[in-house]
Structure formats: structure tokens, C-alpha cells
Write a structure and sequence with these properties.
Blueprint: H1 27-37, H2 42-62, E1 73-74, H3 81-88, H4 103-112, E2 122-124, E3 131-133, E4 136-138, H5 149-159, E5 165-169, H6 171-176, E6 179-181, H7 189-205, E7 210-214, H8 227-243, E8 247-251, E9 270-274, E10 287-293, H9 303-316, E11 319-323, H10 342-345, H11 351-366, H12 372-387, H13 394-401, H14 413-424, H15 441-451, H16 457-478, E12 482-483, H17 495-500, E13 502-505, E14 512-515, E15 518-520, E16 523-530, H18 537-545, E17 550-556, H19 558-563, E18 565-567, H20 573-593, E19 598-602, H21 617-632, E20 640-645, H22 654-660, E21 664-667, H23 675-683, E22 688-691, H24 704-717, H25 736-759
Parallel strand pairs: 1-5, 4-6, 5-7, 7-8, 8-9, 9-10, 10-11, 12-17, 16-18, 17-19, 19-20, 20-21, 21-22
Antiparallel strand pairs: 2-3, 13-16, 14-15
Bound molecules: methionine and zinc ion (ZN).
Length: 760
Amino acid sequence: MTTTATSTPAFPGGTILGYPRIGRRRELKRALEAHWRGAIDDAAFHEAARANRLADLRRLVALGLRADDASIPVEGAHYDHVLDATLTFGAVPARLRGRLPEGLAGEWLLARGDGDDVPLEMTKWLDSNYHYLVPELDADSTFALADSRIVDRFGEAGEAGVHARPVVVGPATYLALAKGTGIRPLDLAERLLPAYAELAAALAAAGATWIQLDEPALIADHDDATLTELQAIARAGADAARAAGLRVLLHVGHGDAAGRVEPLADAVDAIAVDLVRGTAPDVAAAQLVAGVVHGRNVWRTDLDAALQALRALAERGPVSVGTSTTLLHVPHDLAAEQALEPRLRSWLAFADQKVEEVAALAAALRGDEVDESAFAAARASIADRRAAPGVRDGGVRARLASLPADARSRIPYPERDALQRAALDLPPLPTTTIGSFPQTGDIRAARARNARGELNDAAYAEVLRAEVRRVVELQEELGLDVLVHGEPERNDMVQYFAEHLDGFAATEHGWVQSYGSRATRPSILWGDVSRAEPFTVEWIAFAQSLTDKHVKGMLTGPVTILAWSFVRDDQPLAETADQVALALADEIADLEAAGIRIVQVDEPALRELLPLRREARPAYLDWSVRAFRLATAAAAPETQIHTHLCYSEFNTVVDAIDGLDADVTSIEAARSSMEVVDALAEHGFSRGIGPGVYDIHSPRVPTRDELDELLATATRAIPERLLWVNPDCGLKTRGYAETVESLGNLVEAARRARADVAVR
Ligand code: MET
Ligand SMILES: [Zn+2]
């Protein structure tokens, strides 16, 4: 068995790097929304948030983490952990400096905005589907310990009998993920570090012994920061904490840390790395927290293999057991899933089960109480999953193995374009929307009643048909050119597909925080994917029967379906993506047979799954593009294939977007003042393009002048014959009043632009 260096007390034998904060029954979500509605006051909110944090602590102790040695991390953000760092260090954006309200009011202003005060921008955390609030820094930004939440939560845990480990985003990551106006955020490191020193001192004074600095930025490649620079800032953060007498756990996670953290080994006491997606760095000077339990997926750990890996590592130096990342990205507890098919259920581990896995491995590594039954159960589960029916479906595999040579290519675009123009007869600068219309309270209520069995299927379908009728009529009145059915039948653009394809299962309570109070319930993609019967055709065909205009079929693409689900880990993602693609190709064929001439295949997550490391990107872009093409290439040349992407940092993936070979691409652009348009022009994009002219993420109605301005920018850079006019994403989170007004303005703006074009 391993012994530990005498100068550094061994890090706890088993730990996790973070835990879901939304609450086992989404208690925190409810408290947040009640407070925002004014239904509870500040004190009641704080009490609810505190009760939720304490319940989590007690649970972690019950699951086998030690309460006395900093095994248990405490973070407990109300809304977002990056926002917590912003508040802790007083990094108020220039536009709110001197007038940010105290307490919760200020926190919500940053998170949610109010009137003219827009919220902080939101962006995805690394390659996950969690959104953090982006710090807004500038040349006058200053930092100091401005808020005691991190210290208070440590104290609160102590009162509950847990000597916990406070967690904070480290300085390199905080700055690397920030946005700077007139400065490069990383250049503010010298100003920021003293605030970390203040925090460390306050924690030490409160009795903390360890601090966890989350520095995942170290394992990503950045366009405007070098690894050496990030390492130097991370080291300075660790130095500050050690100077205050704390021991430092540096947590990187989220990918391969080898080659990235070695130079920091002497500056910290322990390093937590992802051994599921990466290999072990050689960090003998520090304790290695070996992330052998997957923090981002829901499959049971192969405990035998994990223990073997841990033992091998223990030969090299001190090791303890950890998760590969925080458990923030998985649901709380499998025990809540009583409706899940028992066999599938026996293959899974949610956050609580992962904590138990960590505890079992830690005990086995110590060599004391090896829980043979845990190991035996894991072994049996893994063997069972391998052999279970549906995991490998001969039909699906044979079909993929014998794809025709042209399965991923259509005839050249110019030929398709001519056929489509003749078939579709659209005006110049055609107007359309991205697919969803507002999901009204009535629709949601009907869906909930249908799920509870209070509204029968026929009556529910009638509610949905009425909604489709209303949406089609509205679009006719507004004068849009290509119509949609509005997606009222879809609770979620991925879950709906998962519910209708074989190989997927849905959970009842498997909520994962997406941002703030929002949580999604990712489906579990466990087996080979196929489609038993058409499932969107009925809705699209119904909408088409109501109008002479073209109705766009609406599908979710393979990459997005994978990105927003928990995906099987026993084969490469590329293979799974191709299976989904074939199911979508079947759906497109049925849409065509039903007379639909335009089909949109959404890939909003294409950018999100982009690997954090440059060297891994070409392979990812290759398989993701190939899957999209497999889904769409069998369409007739006359069928116009659209895609929709919702992000504005376009440059990194412009070649891939071109590679998708869609006839029309709509993309987010309104918030970034059409920057995308220049990237496109530079690239020489030659197919249809709809840079979003209306930012649907805000309830604001775009004005006539704004729309004219955005369209003018677009027409300057993009040939008119390629240009479409559309909002930048679906309208499902908007209300009807603002939607009608905004789309009316959009149609008018397109008409004015057409007139301008005709004059020129
Ligand atoms: C996140 S992208 C959303 C696309 C989908 N078709 C919608 O309109 O809602
Ligand atoms: Zn979108």
C-alpha cells in the first residue's frame, strides 16, 4: 500500500470535485423563481438555499465521504460559480460600477438584467452544456474581497459538522474565460491575485485547511493565451493560498492534463485530473487525485479496471480517488428513477452512485474494507450491458456497414440551387423563422395534464393542432415566406427525438442545471439507434395542409442529439452519430413523400462539442460533418436543406459549416452586430445564408432602424441572391405579443431591403 510524504498530510482517500447544486427535487430552482416573482423575501430565499446546501452535505457524508478531512467540497452557488467569483472579488462591470445593488438584488441584476441593464453574457462552460456568466473586465477593473459567501459557506458546513473544502474558480481560468473591453483580461492578473490572497486569508482565519482552485483553462487551447502564461497565473494563485497557510488542491478535469500541470506540482498539495478522458501526469511532488469515476456521464464505473489503474499509480506516488470533473453535470440520484427499465437502470450511476463508487474504490485502495459486493455488482452490470439486446442491433449495423459510396454527397450546389429555385419560387431575401413559436402556458399545461393522464391523447393532439393552426395563420398574416409549424408538440428539441427513436431512454427526475434556475433532463442514449416510424411528418404535413406557402420540416441534427444526451461510452461517438443520422435520413424521406420541399436540420451544438484541444478538432469536425451529410444527402436535389447554428464565434468552424453542404444556413448574428457576415464574406461562402437579424434571447422588440441597419450590413457583404431574413434562434421562450411585433418589423424590413436591392 502507498505511504504518503511526511511533509504533506495525505489528501483524503476519496473525494469528488463538486456536486449538483440545483437540489434533489430542484429545491433551489423553486426558491430562485419564487424570489424572482416576489413570492418569498431575501431571508426566506437564503434559508431555502442554505437548507439545500446542508441537505447535500449530509447526503455526501451518508454516502461515504469523510466529514473531518476536507473530502467534501463546498461551493453552493445560487446561480453560477463564475458569478460567485465575480461577486467575491468585486469585479463589477464598468456600466454598473458604483450602482450595483447590495445582496441578492445585485446578484440577480448581473445574472438576469433589468430594463436597460443587460445581464452579463452567458457562454458554455468548456465543452459542457452548462452556461456561466462571463465576467466583463476593462482597464479600470479592480478586485478585492468584496463578498463573504465562500467563507460563510465554509463556516456553515462547519456548524453542520463537516470540515469542508471551499471551492473557487482559479485566477487563470477566471481571466481566461472573461471578456475584456480595451484590455486582455489575463493582463489583469497582478491586480486580481491580491484578492485571492485576501480570500485565502479569510478562509484560513475561519479554520479552513484546504482550498480547491478550479483551473480547467489549463487543459484547453486558447487563441490569445499561452499555456506558460496560464500556468504562471495558476501558480501565483496557489502561492497566494499557501502563503495564507492553506493547502491547495488544483482541479483541472475535463480532459487530458498530462503535459499541462507538471510544472505546477511543487506549487500545490494535490492535483485532481481526469483519467477518463486523459492520462496521468507525472506529479510526484503533489498528491494525485485520480479522476477514475466519470463526472460527466451516467454509466457505472468499471471498478476492477479503476482499482487496477489506481494501484499502478500508487506505485509512483501518493494517490487518492476522485471524479474526472465536478458532478454538476449529472443528475442527483438514480434511486429517484423508479420508472426506468430495471435492466437499463442497473447499468447506471448518477451523482450519488458515483460518490459511492469513489468511496468503495478509496476503501479498496487503502486496503482495508474492500466491499466485494460493490465490485461484483459493477462487474456483473458491465457484462450484462455488453450482451443486452438492443445494445447492438444487427439491422442498424448492417445498414451502416454497407452504405453506398455517395451516401454523404449530393449533386453540386449550383445544380441543386437551380432546381430548387425553379421548384420553390421564393422572392429575393426570403423571410422565415427558426422553427419554434412561443410555448404558451396553455401548451405546457396541456402537456403536463397529458403526462399525468388527465388529458387523453386525442384531446392533447387537438390542443396542439389548434396551436399549429394559429401559428400558420399568424405567419400568413405577417407575410412570412417560408412557414414553420411552431414545434408545440416538442417539450425539448432533443428529448422529443429521443422519445421517438429506439436506443434512447428518458428519465423522470434526471435534471441537470443548464444555467441559473434552468435545468434540462438529458435522455440516455444506451443502444443502437433506429426509427420505428415517422414522428414529425404528421405535424409538418398538417401545417402544410393549411397553407399554399412552403412549410419547413424541422429536425434536430445528430451532433446536437448527442451533445444534449448522455451517450453510450462503448463505441466512438462518430459511430453513434451515424446511426442517428440514418434515422433522420429516414424521416427526411418520409417528409419528402408527404410533399415537404424544405427541411431544416438544426445543429446548434456543433460548436459546443468542439474539443478544447486544437489537435483533436479536425477529427471531431470530420465525423460531425460526415454525420450531418449522411442525414441529409439522400434528399432529392430539389429538396432544400436548411441548417441552423446558434453561436456567433464563427471563425473556428467556418470550414466545417461549409462542409455541411446545407443549401441554407441560419446563424446567430444580431448580438454580435453581424460580425459573422464578414467572416462569411472572407471565407467566400457560396450557399444560402440567414444571419439572424433579431436577437430572440431578449424580450426587446427590434426597431425598424436596427433591422434596416443589420440588413444593410448583411447585403453589403453577402450577395443578395444568397441572403435570407430570419431571427437568430427559435421563439419558444418569447411571448406572443413581442413575437408578433418583432416578426412584423422583420417582414417589413425585408420588403424595404428588397425594394433597395431592386433599385440598385
Ligand atoms: C437552440 S436552436 C433551436 C432550433 C429550433 N428549431 C427552435 O426553433 O427552437
Ligand atoms: Zn438556435
